[in-house]
Each structure stands twice: as C-alpha cells, then as structure tokens.
Amino acid sequence: MSVQVRQMVKSFGTFRAIDDLSVTFQSGKISVLLGASGCGKTTTLRCIAGLENPNGGEIRIEDEPVFSSARGIDLPPEKRRLGMVFQSYAVWPHLTVKGNVGMPLRAQKVPKEQIERRVQETLAVVGLSEQADKSAMKLSGGQQQRVSIARCLVGNPRLILMDEPLSNLDARLRVEMRNEIRQLQQRIGATILFVTHDQEEAMSLADEIFLFNKGKVEQQGSPEDLYFRPAVRYVAEFLGKANLFPVTLRGEAGQTAIYAAGSDHLITKGDIVRPRGDEALCMIRPESWQIGLAEGDRVGLPATVLEAVFVGDRRELHVDTPIGRQIVVTPGHQRFSAGARISLTIASQQIHLLPDRL
After folding, report:
1. Which contacts qualify for 3-7: CB closer than 8 Å, 24 or more apart?
2. Which residue windows are transmembrane per the record (predicted)?
3. Which helix (H) or strand (E) holds 114?
C-alpha cells in the first residue's frame, strides 16, 4: 500500500515539526525515515498513524484519504488499517505469547476459532510457533520484539509502521532483528515505514531512505544514491564520513580536471558530472582514497599520517595533505604509524561534486 503525504504541516506551539512536507512512500517497499532527534521523522509517522493531528495538508493510504484539512477528513487509527511497532516491546506480562499476539483480534471480537488459526499462522511467520504457550516475559529481548511484530501482523494490516523498534536491543541482536525484518517483508510483501536515527540500520534495511532535516526531506533515494551521490552538503556529512574541500574545475583535452581551489594541485581528471560553474565542493569518502608509498612528492597527493585508529575490520588514518586534513580508511590488517609518509590517489568516478561552498 502506497502512502502519499501532501503539503503536511504539524506544529507544537511555535515549533514547526513538519514544514509543508510532500512525499510518497512506495507500495511493497521498506521506506526508512532517517534523521537526527527533532527532525520530524517520528512526528510524520505518528501523523500517518493517526496518533497526531496535522495542522494542514493531506494523507492518503492507497489513494484513500485518511486525513485532509481541506475536506475535514480525519480517520481514527483503528480505521486506517495499519499496524504499528513501537520502541517498547509492550508485551502483557500476565499473558502467554499466543495470548499477546491474539489480543487485537479479541478486542475486535473475532470468533475464537479464527483467532486460534490466525495466531498460529502469524507465529509461524515470525518463527515463534514453539514459544506459543510460554510466558512472554520469559523470552529474550529479540523474541519479545518478534511478539510485538506478530501482534502487529495478526490483523493483516495494509501498512506497517515501525518507530525505532530495535533501539532497546544490544548490537548483535539489532543486526539479527533487522535481517529478520528484511526477510519478513520479502515474504509477506508488506509496505513498511521504519523510523530510525541509526545510519547503519537505515542503510542495511531500506529500499529507499528519506533523510529528514528541520521538518523537511533533504533527499530521498536508495542508500547508494544518498551515500555516494548526496544532493547537498548536509546529506554528505550526515551519512558516514566525508572529506569535503573546495575545488576548481577546468576543461583539459576533453575531460574535466579537478584542482584544489586556489592552487595548481591536480586531484584527478576524467569524465566527471559537474555542477554549473567552475567551482564546487568536492566529496571523497574515506574508503575511496587509494594509498601508495610516497616517492618524493611526485606520486599522487603527498600525505603524512597524523594518527592511525584501529577499529577492527578497518583502520582510520587522519592525514595531513596540501589540501588540508583528510580521513582515509584502509583494511584493519594494514599498519601505519604516526609520521609515515604516503601518497593518495583517487579515480575520477570515486569523486562527487556538490554545488555547495565551504
């Protein structure tokens, strides 16, 4: 089920949490609403769920209006045919696993035999069939979150909303659960809107990321698009680490040559997508630099290692270069000591140019 939000506004007093937001979340996909605290992502989710009332605009679920300020439409949450999974597991401690999962159906006065069948089917989907008769409080954190997901699924919602559902789990369980959510979505073909502030979680789960900032979406697209082809500086800096420095662009022999601004130091040249004008902000991801041994100052960009930080699978080098301090990522097994002299090279396709200025 697709979700269309048009010109939505939501204010809390003088604070505008959502500022004229217009986005479409695609049917059958995992759309991740990503951003820092207070950016508007959770408020957007709660407005779609009917837990918050926008001050203006329209929300449609599969082209059916569930909220419209102009037409006076505001369906209550229970009539929007959606399910929601919160940060808290919210399991009832006095009930078994199947008792927890069946609670929404009992509230709807669904016949007992139908409840039994649908609960069993849903527990099978989330891999909890063998835990059905156990107390929900005796399950692990990951299993309790699966109970809350099953409780959401048992009513066959056309849309699933998840508000930071993994934030209470430890690091290992978070990885396991996001893999399970991805596999679950692929099995049932659900439309999922997933709110998180965790970049790695967003990148690994999303079909499409919506990066929020100050009540607006700065950029939407695939994880690869936002990481390698950010539209603005905010996106480049929010997702991962980025080396940013001003450059001058020159046409040379049918190619675009990129020089450090205010110098004749050539960074690279090639068939490069360039913004208008002869100046731009160059973005290079730390892992895109290629490291070689320094041979005088003639090979690549000369650099001196200031600090080498070992983080397991990779080593982060902070280096000093003629274009300023850069961050370089190399495999963890490669050793570098402070003071080592290296050279850095970059392929033209590993560079992204932004119209921004420093």
Report:
1. 3/48, 3/59, 3/60, 3/61, 3/159, 3/191, 3/193, 4/58, 4/59, 4/60, 4/63, 5/44, 5/47, 5/48, 5/57, 5/58, 5/59, 6/57, 6/58, 6/59, 6/60, 7/56, 7/57, 7/58
2. none
3. helix 112-125
What topology does CATH give the domain 3-237?
Answer: Rossmann fold (3.40.50)
Burial class (CB in 10 A: 0-12, 13-18, 19+), 77: middle
Task: Profile the chain (358 residues) by mean pLDDT over runs of 10 residues.
Answer: 96 95 96 96 97 97 95 93 85 90 89 92 89 90 87 87 88 85 87 95 96 97 96 94 92 84 84 79 94 61 93 94 93 92 90 77
Domain boundaries, the chain: 3-237, 242-354
Interatomic CA distance for residues 32 and 38, integer angstroms: 16
Task: Give the whole-angstrom CA distance, residue 9 versus residue 18.
Answer: 5
Reading the block at residue 351, the tokens are 């560079």
Sheet holding 266-270, edge to edge: 266-270, 255-260, 243-252, 279-284, 352-354
CATH C-level class of 242-354: mainly beta
CA–CA distance, 302 with 294 (Å, rounded to integer): 7
Euclidean distance between CA atoms 14 and 11, whole angstroms: 7
Global pTM? Answer: 0.88
